[in-house]
Amino acid sequence: MTHRPIPVRRTKIVATLGPASDREGVLEQMIAAGVDVVRLNFSHGSADDHRRRLAAVREI
């Protein structure tokens, strides 16, 4: 029996951070579920909201 190597995933999972991801533990769960990249939608929220979310990502 020959074994095939496990293919490397070439796609990335991108998540948009917003109010729903502000709850305690949600960002950690998203990363544990496979999120590779996060983005911020600057059309919604204040500059302080975006700074806080960015700081949370950098902390992890």
DSSP strand (E) fraction? Answer: 5-15%
Question: What summary fits the major beta sheet?
Answer: 2 strands, parallel
Number of domains: 1
End-to-end span in angstroms?
A: 42 Å
Distinct helical segment count: 2
- DSSP, total strands: 2
From N to C, what is the helix and strand string?
Answer: EHEH
Radius of gyration: 16 Å
Share of residues in helices:
25-40%
Sum up the overall morphology in one term: elongated
Low-confidence stretches: none
* Physical arrangement of strands within the biggest beta sheet: 1-2
Structural class by sheet pairing and helices: alpha+beta
Q: Mean of residue pLDDT?
A: 90
Family: Belongs to the pyruvate kinase family.
Enzyme class: transferase
Pathway: Carbohydrate degradation; glycolysis; pyruvate from D-glyceraldehyde 3-phosphate: step 5/5
Keywords: ATP-binding, Glycolysis, Kinase, Magnesium, Metal-binding, Nucleotide-binding, Pyruvate, Transferase
3D architecture notes:
- The chain is α+β, with helices and mostly antiparallel strands and 60 residues long.
- The protein has one domain.
- 33% of the residues lie in helices and 13% in strands.
- The protein contains 2 helices and 2 strands, in the order βαβα.
- It has helices at residues 26-32, 47-59; strands at residues 14-17, 37-40.
- Strands 1-2 form a two-stranded parallel sheet.
- It is elongated.
- Residues 9-59 form the Pyruvate kinase barrel domain.
- Belongs to the pyruvate kinase family.
